[in-house]
Amino acid sequence: MKLHILGAARTVTGSMHLLEVDGHKLLLDCGLFQGKREETYAVNQHFSFDPASIDAVVLSHSHIDHSGNLPNLVKQGFRGPIYATDASADLADIMLKDSAHIHEWDVQYVNKKRRKQGLPPMPPLYNMQDALATVPLFRSVWYGQRFEPVPGVGVRLMDAGHILGSSAVVVDVVEDGALKRLWFSGDIGRYDAPILEDPVLPQGADYLLMECTYGDKAHEHIEDAFEELRQVILRTMRRGGKVIIPAFAVGRTQMLTYYLSQAIERGEIPDIPVVIDSPLATNASELYRKHSECFDEETWRFIAEHRNPAIDFENIIYTRSVDESKALNDYHEPMIIISASGMAESGRIQHHLANNIEDGRNTIVIISWQAPDTLGRRLADQERKVRIFGEEYYRKAEVVTIGGLSAHAGQDLLVEYALASKETLKKIIFVHGEEKAYSALRGRLDDHAGLPEIAYPQKGEVFAL
Ligand SMILES: [Zn+2]
Q: Which of 80, 88, 228, 360 could cross-link with 165 by S-S, CB 3.0 to 4.6 Å?
């Protein structure tokens, strides 16, 4: 088999890999590359293969950097099945429609600028029709269920503990009478993360294609990170300010809700409104209720004793309309606003940042990895002057980064993951991580004897496995 690395190579977005087996083509993930607008359009627009020639797609999880280019794949001729867990398929349904909406909206803004420059208008990367044409192609499978997306290739999805429905993709191929196993990690979650099961470690893998987002970071314990967040909330409340959290609508938002719900119930945080200002997050939270089959035992116990942690919560306000969202600007009491997108590049979070960034009483809390050249990265880098909607803002609000709330495995778990099937492993291919992260992880791995071959490929590199 041949493995083509087509995305998330030496960076953290645009996950996409093409597997060729016996004349069949299987795509693992079809994610959006995220970053500077001008660059991303061209990168996402162009596939290095004919989309109509792909037999099937297997999706590791629904995050847009893994699923977000599927409607474009369909727009350009793909008609095969897209395999994913039931929860991932449901989440992808709402996320791809939301993404289509963003692309339609975004291109209007771009075209306004192009008109002024005398340039012809551009079409959106894809539109709602393309997203609607993608959704019926999904085929739901359960964790551990074996299926054959193309003849002679057996695939199973194993729980990755990263977000609801997230999985590692285990590909078994018999070639020349020998079984070869490629284990694609998808995004690896964490031990003891709220709501979800722990990630399943690789077993019997010959080849490991794995992420290394936080290869250079030892996460603090999730409990300590929550304590840090609690202190930030208390400090901001004393100043009479608002806490603004850009968060991925799927995963981080529900984890924060779960924590805040418990903290308020225990009296650790006073009774203040918690606003989830993202229609996507609101819809995703509904799916967290529906797919309780993905929950861990502790969450089941909490539900039995109290309520569904992801969505039922007295102080929580879900805003749906733009008017409700804008009305928050006139509310001057302390509150917590959780809004998407997670890297602050689009969505309602931009309005909240524009409205609150110049007030020193407020705090902006960064809780996830931020791609280079995004507004989120500039905030995380403590820049004083930032542009939002083309206007310059002078930041007075405090910015706090809490790394320990990440949905990704930290360095220790990545090392454990890489070494889990050391007995059988012939090669590890690291993707989905910047060079700094890879180098640090590589340094840790080099302490171990008997390591397999290790690669850190460029985009477009091909491996004969
Ligand atoms: Zn992810």
A: 88
328 CA to centre of ligand 1 in angstroms: 29
Which architecture, in CATH terms, is 222-405? 3-Layer(aba) Sandwich (3.40)
DSSP helix/strand/coil, 222: helix
| CATH code of the domain made up of 2-217+407-464 | 3.60.15.10
Max CA-CA distance within the chain? 69
pLDDT over 70 at 184, yes or no: yes
Sketch the domain layout of the chain as residue ranges.
2-217+407-464, 222-405
Question: How far is it, in rounded angstroms, from Cα 32 to Cα 103?
Answer: 12
Cα of 190 vs centre of ligand 1, distance in Å, is: 12
**Mean pLDDT, rounded, for 203-217:** 96
Sign, CA torsion 337/342/345/346: negative
Going from the Cα of 113 to the center of ligand 1, the distance in angstroms, rounded, reads 32
Q: Rounded CA gap, 99 and 85, in Å?
A: 20
CA–CA separation, 166 and 92 (whole Å)? 11
pTM of this structure: 0.90
Backbone torsion region of residue 456, taken as left when φ is above 0, otherwise alpha when ψ lies between -120 and 50, otherwise beta: beta
Q: 325: CA distance to ligand 1 center in Å? A: 26
Q: Kindly indicate the confidence band of residue 307, based on its pLDDT and cuts at 50, 70 and 90.
A: low
d(CA 187, ligand 1 centre) in Å: 5
Amino acid of residue 296: D
Tell me: the pLDDT tens digits for 62-91? 999 999 999 999 999 999 999 999 999 999
